[in-house]
Amino acid sequence: MEIFYLVLLIAVVSLGPGLLPQVFVNRISSRGLADLTGFASGLLLVSALVVVVPEGFHTAAESGGGFAFDPVVLGLAGLAGFSLLLALEGLGIGHAVHEEHHDHESGHGHEHVHHPYSSGVVALGLSVHALADGLAIGAAATSGETSFSLLVAFAVIVHRVPAALSLGIFLLHQPGGRRAAIKGLLLFTLATPVALVLSYLVLDGADKSVLALVLLFSAGTFVYVATVDTLPAIHNPTTGRRSVRNVLSSAAAFSILLIVLNSAGILEHGHHEIDGHHDDGHVEDSR
Question: Is 277 helix (H, G, I), strand (E, B) or coil?
Fold first, then answer.
């Protein structure tokens, strides 16, 4: 049932903020959206480097050796996740919407604002990134570590709010009206839940070495998304300092929370049941 609730929550967090610009377009400021993106990116960055990467290496160590135990191979898995999204960005299938919504504040109310990419391409690009989010949560849930999977899900869910808002604003200024905008939002909304469920079903019971590689691949995608979302604002002389402050403050707050949880023993590795499945296959002798 945990998977069902995660799927439902992700769908609501994706579609809800994406529809807000249809009603409150004049009340959504570029500065506020940029701030929210910065805070969310800080959380995503910490989730990747402090939560997912260590868990990936820990899972590889539990596999008992083999191909995935090689640190170079594990590092290459993370690089592969980063490189894949970088390549897609180069093909125009990426986060272009984040770079453009900052220019829309003065354009609200106009029927159409020119963009270098079509609404379909932008929706597809964000949906591809959303698929990577679903893979990360699905792999985390399969690990059997409840606290770990919830932390990953939390970071992804928070990050989806500004992504959905940006997509909603972008689509509002494209030809095709509300019907086309809602179609794009539905594609974005469904991408993560579908990837989450499929990855959970495929990886459930998979060898730990495979799971370790998938986790580190997901960490690479997290690092890419967190950086590509904030670099345009950081490079802008008028918003650079504020953007850096937002990213670092949220990263520091999340890191402190993780330290507290770890000190309290909440993040200790223990193989918990998720939807009736045991992760490590260890059976306690009750005699």
Answer: strand
